[in-house]
Amino acid sequence: MKTPISRVGASLADNSYLTKLICIILVITSVRVIALLSSELNFHGDEAQYWTWSQALDWGYYTKPPMIAWIIYSTTWVLGDAEWATRISSPLLHAGTSFFCALTADKLYGKNAALWAGITFLTLPAVSFSSCIISTDVPLLFFWSISLYLLVRNIQKRSLSCSLLLGATLGLGLLSKYAMAYFLICAFISCIFFKDYRWFLKSWNGLVSIAIAGLILTPNIIWNIDRQWVTVTHVGDNVNLKAQLFNVQNLVSFLGEQFGVFGPMLFLALIFLVILFLRGQIEKRDAWLLCFILPVLLIVTVQSFISRANANWAAPAYIGATILVTGWLSANYHRWILKVSFSLHALTMAIIIFYFLSIPGYYPPLKSDPLRKLRGWSELSQSLSDTMANYPQHILLTEDRKTTASLLYGLRAQSYPIQIWDYDGQPDHHYELTAKYLPQEKDKVILAAKWETPHPILTNFAFVKRLEPLQVDIGKDTHRTLHLFELRNYRKD
Q1: Mutual angle of helices 137-157 and 89-109, in 10-degree steps
Q2: Does pLDDT of 100 surpass 80?
Q3: Which residues pair with 447 in a beta bridge?
Q4: Of these four, 210, 232, 275, 380, which has the most CB atoms within 10 Å of its CB?
Q5: What is the pLDDT of residue 8?
Q6: What is the distance in angstroms between the CA of the first residue and the CA of the last residue of the chain?
Q7: How far is 163 from 155, CA to CA, in rounded Å?
Q8: What gap in Å lies between CA 77 and CA 87, rounded to an integer?
Q9: CA-CA distance, 56 to 237, in Å (whole number)?
Q10: CB under 8 A, 24+ apart: contacts of 360-367
Q11: Average pLDDT of the chain to the nearest whole number
């Protein structure tokens, strides 16, 4: 093989795999959409927060760039603001990501690998779960998959039009999640290690892509500058270097979680391919794809060891990993591994959908219910609304970000103000920027708190009356509770 990326893709006359893939995508996506329509599970705190962002469109938010808010605004503007309408972009965008994984695999490995790449990504355990919620990873992976496809096309054809589109998808990816910057790192590494493609770094193609991406990101940069780089500060906090460093337990936990994210058989296959790479026993196209896998995995793995890392932080690596593993297994006549893996993933998808439907009396047979944070918020919000009806002219005060977000959604039809207590005088999240409580002496306040005795809030009011707490069942012997207090006569200690 002369070059890492050869033109082995199927001709236009031989693209029957696309018909099969599109049919499979339509069936699986339809099932997921029906599950969303049928489910009565509520938002978790982050989902509710994204919904509140969509109610005040901007070029950025405290923790994330704006794409997630724009997407939610688009779907809810058309379909209403129910949970399913807010989440519906997830299965749709994952369907698109699956399609572009297939197109890239077609260019690198051929039509058989393309079909498997599309099906495999669509049924990855992490994708099945992610399709049931709304998160910033979904648009990130979508734009990452398009960017990878356009980069392959660009390298094969040296197309200025592909460079223009690549710049646009890179910029939109950065507006989805800053982890899109990994793609730039990976692309740079690939051009360095494969001298045949260094031209991309020096040509108008590369410059145009970077320029357009930067232009698209500029409004978000300006937004951050105007707010003292709050998002950058948050990203720095996520690194969590102030906590205990060099934690082997976190490292082992993170690596173990990757078997669940990518699937056990596929992750083992990926490890095997990395070993072959270290031995110099893989083709150049395989090594090229590893440039878009290993840097992400290594960065996040090191982060997990130094401090901590969530399982999904390595998600961008699995676009390339899906294409690599399915392409290599198909090319080396190991499709039985793909078939077994697909069967396991399909079973996992069915279980996730079953429990996401939230059938009364059925809970995951696990020590810790992963869906518990999606339960009870609707009932709790209704109970709180009934309580607030007895206290007209009162401010609803909260003291926790996720609780605030969930109540803002649950009480969206109400007109009374909902504000949050700032414990340290520094903005630590979105609501301390936009809904911070500014106390006045004559304020009448109803405090809804996670904690039974939320000090120092109580000590700042002369009148404190404990009200009956609100409690709803969210599973086996599990409850969600809000502690309520009537507060008057603010005084600064």
Answers
A1: 20
A2: yes
A3: 397, 485
A4: 380
A5: 61
A6: 75
A7: 10
A8: 13
A9: 25
A10: 363/475, 363/476
A11: 90
Per-residue model confidence (pLDDT) at position 245 = 65
Residue 123 contacts residue 91 (beta carbons within 8 Å) = no
> pLDDT at position 247, please?
80
Q: How far apart are alpha carbons 396 and 416 in whole angstroms?
A: 7
Q: Say what the alpha-carbon torsion angle 140, 178, 183, 114 is, to the nearest 10 degrees.
A: -10
What are the φ and ψ backbone dihedral angles of 188, each rounded to 5 degrees? Answer: -60, -45
Q: Where in the chain is the domain with CATH 3.40.1380?
A: 376-490
CA–CA dist 400, 199 (Å, integer)? 51
DSSP conformation letters of 235-282: HHHHH-TTS----HHHHHHHHHHHHHHH-HHHHHHHHHHHHHHHTT-S
Of 346, 176, 355, 342, the closest CA to residue 266 belongs to 342
pLDDT tens, 429-438? 889 888 999 9
Residue 491 has pLDDT above 90, yes or no: no
Enclosing H/E stretch for 114: helix 111-122
481 contacts 380 by C-beta, under 8 angstroms = no
- Cα torsion for 247, 248, 250, 255, to the nearest 10°? 150
Distance between CA atoms of 285 and 116, rounded to whole angstroms?
Answer: 17
Per-residue confidence band for 30, with pLDDT thresholds at 50, 70 and 90:
very high
Q: Which residues contact 258 (CB under 8 A, 6 or more apart)?
A: 267, 297, 311, 314
Number of other CB atoms surrounding residue 462 within 10 Å = 11
Tell me the CATH architecture of domain 376-490: 3-Layer(aba) Sandwich (3.40)
**pLDDT (tens digit per residue) in 362-384:** 666 666 677 888 888 999 999 99
pTM: 0.93
- For 259, the token pair is 């078997």
